[in-house]
Specification:
With 156 residues, this protein is of the alpha+beta class. The protein has one domain. The protein is 35% helix and 21% strand. A four-stranded antiparallel sheet has the order 2-1-4-3. A hairpin with a 2-residue loop joins β3 and β4. The longest helix has 21 residues. It is globular, with a radius of gyration of 18 Å.
Length: 156
């Protein structure tokens, strides 16, 4: 029987200068990774938290040359989860219990921050839909559309 708690836990690691050093996104109840547990860590590691928050989703996704909708969805899910966790870490959002992104633990030791937040899957899904993955604004639709020249056969 599938688990009814679909909340995800994001574990962020930041250095003393508020630069992301790593993260892990997993299901809260079983600890299983969401896609790859640190799907975007290589691209985001070393960046200042505020710089990550300013990153444009369309540019970020376009630069990745994603090949299918599942890969795009997981990329967006990780991207928005990291941003949500960073907004709470920086105090931009409260992270209070009951919020879409709620603080579970915060630890500061040896010039490193470890921040764990619980994220509502519904909140991430809404953010993904509003960013263009719903194909409403067309931002990500372009990625999966064939060029017009390739659609028509060449005359012989």
């Amino acid at each position: 029987m599938p688990c009814e708690d679909i909340t995800e836990t994001l574990n962020l690691q930041l250095d003393g200068h508020e630069r992301l050093s790593g993260y892990r996104l997993a299901k809260r109840t079983c600890g299983r990774a969401v896609g790859q547990e640190s799907l975007l860590a290589a691209e985001l590691a070393g960046r200042d938290a505020r710089v990550i928050l300013e990153m444009d989703v369309e540019d970020f996704v376009a630069d990745k040359n994603l090949v299918d909708e599942v890969e795009t969805f997981l990329t967006l899910k990780h991207f928005f989860a990291v941003k949500a966790g960073l907004r709470v870490f920086l105090g931009i959002e409260s992270g209070a219990a009951g919020e879409p992104c709620a603080v579970a633990t915060v630890i500061c030791e040896a010039d490193q921050w470890i921040v764990e937040v619980d994220i509502s899957v519904e909140a991430l899904t809404q953010e993904i839909k509003s960013c263009g993955n719903c194909k409403g604004c067309g931002a990500l639709k372009k990625m999966f559309r064939q060029p017009a020249a390739a659609a028509a056969p060449l005359p012989l």
